[in-house]
Design goal:
The chain is mainly alpha-helical. The chain has 2 domains: 66 residues, Arc Repressor Mutant, subunit A (Orthogonal Bundle), CATH 1.10.10; 160 residues, Four Helix Bundle (Hemerythrin (Met), subunit A), CATH 1.20.120. Helices cover 73% and strands 4% of the residues. The chain has 10 helices and 3 strands, in the order H-E-H-H-E-E-H-H-H-H-H-H-H. It has a 3-stranded antiparallel beta sheet. A hairpin with a 3-residue loop joins strand 2 and strand 3. Helix 4 packs parallel to helix 9 and helix 7 runs antiparallel to helix 8. The chain is elongated, with a radius of gyration of 20 Å. The termini are far apart.
Length: 235
Amino acid sequence: MAANSKTKVLYQKVRDKIVSGEIKPGAILTESGLSDEYGVSKAPAREALVLLGHEGLVESMPRIGHVVAAFTLQDVLETFHLRSILEAEAAGLAAERITEEGLAALSKNSDEEFALSERAYQAATINMGQEPAFSDKVSILRIAAHENGFYERACELNIEFHQLIARASGNRRLADLIQRLMEDMRRMLAFDSRFVTPQQHLEVIEALKHRDRAKAEQAMKKHMAETKSRLLDRF
């Protein structure tokens, strides 16, 4: 494998772990550490860290290495402010323009989210040997999701849900902006106490099915507000 290819592969692996939250903000990454962990020389490790630095995902610390950048309360507030505006508009446009194929894709996405939530709940119940108390369900479901490999699929489904609606708006530039915001936010969403929100998504889908622009916008704004509230509880 060429040095440049090794750099790209290593960069993508480390980036995915940072974005997913597997590598936490504040973690120290070094050339020697990455070299040993991934079986590459220090040159690809150094170049990968430079690329991650260009994205703002890591910050150089002289004589120490690179620290994984933290996101701030202001980052969360600004991102949700933009998402609420753009995604409510996308949902409103989608209510007027979405096709039957688009609605079918959203329904399929929702069905899989509900099924994933049920599988996580069953796994949590089996692990505990009993049904978890209502107050513990959210955190236990999230732990079960991570332990059983459901979390990554949940992230994919969530991104797909929002992108389907964005594309259904018929505004390509709006869809591109929403996609970039979703990518920026994935690190933040790794700290959400819930790993899926199928009921909130279903409310948006129902409004789209009824071609109700006002309700679609309202349901999306409500979804954004509730997710933001859960994240702010982490600060």
